[in-house]
Amino acid sequence: MNFLVVAPNKEEADSASAVFKMLWQGTNILTSTCCQEALSILEKCRPDFLLLNLAVPSGDWLDLIRDVRLFSSIPLVVVSNDANESTMVRSFELGADDYFIKPYKPLELVLRTKAIIRRASGVNEGESLVVGLLRLHALLHRVYVGDKEVSLTPTENNILRHMMENVGHIVTYSSLAQQVWGDDYPDASATLKVYIKRLRQKLGDDSKRPSMILNETGLGYRLVKPVMLPA
């Protein structure tokens, strides 16, 4: 298992690397302190996981998430000192699969990372789901809305897949958290809200008046079979 840890300085890169070396045997960890170098490593080495260990995600570091998502669906996690909700939301919107606020529990970081990687790679080749005008190729992290192709992050892919497998039924916050991270955890509903917002944007579903992914207040969400393309 090959990891890439990116941080503004060597100390932060090494501290995050140490967590995985201690708790996840067999990991080969590359590090970088430069955005351009990180992109080059991603293209040449094709690691299995990307961790951004940042004091405050901003500027070039947030742009790195966007740039990675232009060509890769690699599982990507941000670890940061910044507990500002807007920063967390922005990271998710750009394509992060999870966001940890320091200080974090090392074992929780490793377990949730394992869950993200497992779900990103555990789909049988060629498997696809069709619900109305939605067609999901889970292995490729691609969904089609009619003829329009949309790229998904691994976490978005897992959320949509779970909802498509339960179309017409309420999917609870807890079951979605189990599907994505392998366990429920405090504030999962708030984190899922960000992902659902992003999914709606990608699918063309109006967040203010959704017709595809509906809110079920206090419970979770329900996917309605789309029979007409979004306006």
Written account of the structure:
With 231 residues, this protein is of the alpha/beta class. The protein folds into two domains: 2-121, Response regulator (Rossmann fold, 3-Layer(aba) Sandwich); 128-223, Orthogonal Bundle (Arc Repressor Mutant, subunit A), CATH 1.10.10. 43% of the residues lie in helices and 23% in strands. The chain has eight helices and twelve strands. It has helices spanning 10-23, 35-45, 59-69, 85-94, 106-121, 154-165, 173-181, 188-203, and strands at residues 2-6, 28-32, 49-54, 76-80, 98-101, 128-131, 134-137, 142-145, 148-151, 170-172, 213-216, 220-223. The chain has a five-stranded parallel beta sheet, with helices on both faces. Strands 6-7-8-9 form a four-stranded antiparallel beta sheet, covered by helices on one side. Strand 8 (142-145) and strand 9 form a beta hairpin. The chain is globular, with a radius of gyration of 17 Å. 36% of the residues are buried.
